[in-house]
Amino acid sequence: MIRAYTIASGKGGTGKTTVTANLGAALAQHGRKTCIVDMDMGMANLALVLGLAETPVTLHEVLAGEAPIRDAIYEGPYGLKIVPSGLSLRGFQNADPERLKDVMRDLTERCDFLLLDAPAGISTDAVVPLTMADEVLLVVNPEIASLVDALKIKILTETIGGAIGGAIINRADGENFDVNRKQIEKMLGVSVIDTIPEDANVRRAAAARTLVVVKSPGSGSSKAFRRIAASLAGFPVEEEPQEVQDGFIERLARALFRREP
Ligand SMILES: Nc1ncnc2c1ncn2[C@@H]1O[C@H](COP(=O)(O)OP(=O)(O)OP(=O)(O)O)[C@@H](O)[C@H]1O
Questions:
Q1: Ligand 1 pocket check for 153: Cβ under 6 Å
Q2: SS (H, E, C) 117-167
Q3: pTM for the full model?
Q4: Which of 119, 121, 189, 243 is in the most buried spot, having the most CB atoms within 10 Å?
Q5: Where is the CobQ/CobB/MinD/ParA nucleotide binding domain (predicted)?
Q6: Whose Cα sits closest to atom 9 in ligand 1?
Q7: Which domains are seen in the chain, by residue range?
């Protein structure tokens, strides 16, 4: 059975795109056919985070009726399927709702898991994805401003008939919490699925146009992404992941060009 999740937050910059991409890759790594869709028509970050160089056809062209959805599906790590968005301020406002339904139906036929990366805020573009998935997952930072905005999204989702599947705390920085897990659960009235630590490896991976679960599988954030994937898909969590080994070419290049200090 296909499971569709919308990853939302309310406040911008909490880590929705990071969570969508890494969770998608962690599911794909476990053999789950997974498709992630960038529904943030204004920001279109997913392709950048995944290092996709050329995306001539995007969700934007598909919704405009200029291309079939299959032309807007690109392949990422572990066979993860990615539908990027176009840079357009028009967003869904002019999109034909029937076409959007067809696109989603087509995607659900191609995968076991569908993850939708929703835009921040409560514009039309942000509201549409809240109604489309089985469950909305709220990505929050452990700070009051993020929680207040997440609460607005929760209320909005429930008002329009959607369901909240839980919250994911991202960028939890050691002791540096405004609010702890229990307080977050009380304030939002939803359970916290897991906590992803603040992790410099996330930014290093982003700078290298790749994902932390690919580049640094042993890092704290990667472990959290795999735990969340395991809980969504119901497979056991691997405690000791294998670090990705450099390929032969990388090792050869290092051996040949190593400079002594
Ligand atoms: N756990 C983490 N540790 C360190 N840095 C992180 C973490 N999660 C996200 N980041 C960084 O925070 C920034 C914002 O993340 P991201 O783009 O995923 O947020 P977003 O909620 O999708 O933003 P927007 O609202 O603009 O779409 C990025 O630079 C990302 O690398």
A1: no
A2: ECCCCCCHHHHHHHHHCCEEEEEECCCHHHHHHHHHHHHHHHHCCCCEEEE
A3: 0.88
A4: 119
A5: 6-208
A6: 15
A7: 3-257 (3.40.50.300)
